[in-house]
Amino acid sequence: MKTSATILSVISIAFSSFTFAFDSPEQRDAIDSQLGNTPSEQTYQNILQSNPQVAPNILSILLNKQGVDPQNAITAAMAAAPDKATEIAQVARDAGVSNEDITSAALLAGVDPTQIAEASAAGTPTNTSVAPPSPPSVGGQGGGGTGAISPS
Description:
Blueprint: H1 2-19, H2 25-35, H3 41-50, H4 55-62, H5 70-80, H6 85-94, H7 99-109, H8 113-116
């Protein structure tokens, strides 16, 4: 079952990369030129909002630019194209962005983080119940003594 799910995921990602690719090298070059060497957050937000259909590809360019905060770039990409959040998260993972930053970006963009969460190596847990805490023990004799009551 895990093998077929893995194969399906790989096929899905492969098809998504074809679906969301730039229309032409000229389109890619034009967007790269608009971004410049060190794009401001406002610049890439505007470009992502204008081109949500290629947001994963734009993010790939952004993550290779100097001075771009990966979490902010992912947030902007997911906000511009929430329907492509899974592909955006995969582009970020492929670029070496931590899952923590990707999840935070999803939350900031208003995307359900479970939609983009990467499966753990342990798989899906089957028993997540936790035993309730044990009640506190009742005190004993109080440590002995002579039986006199303290004057204070």
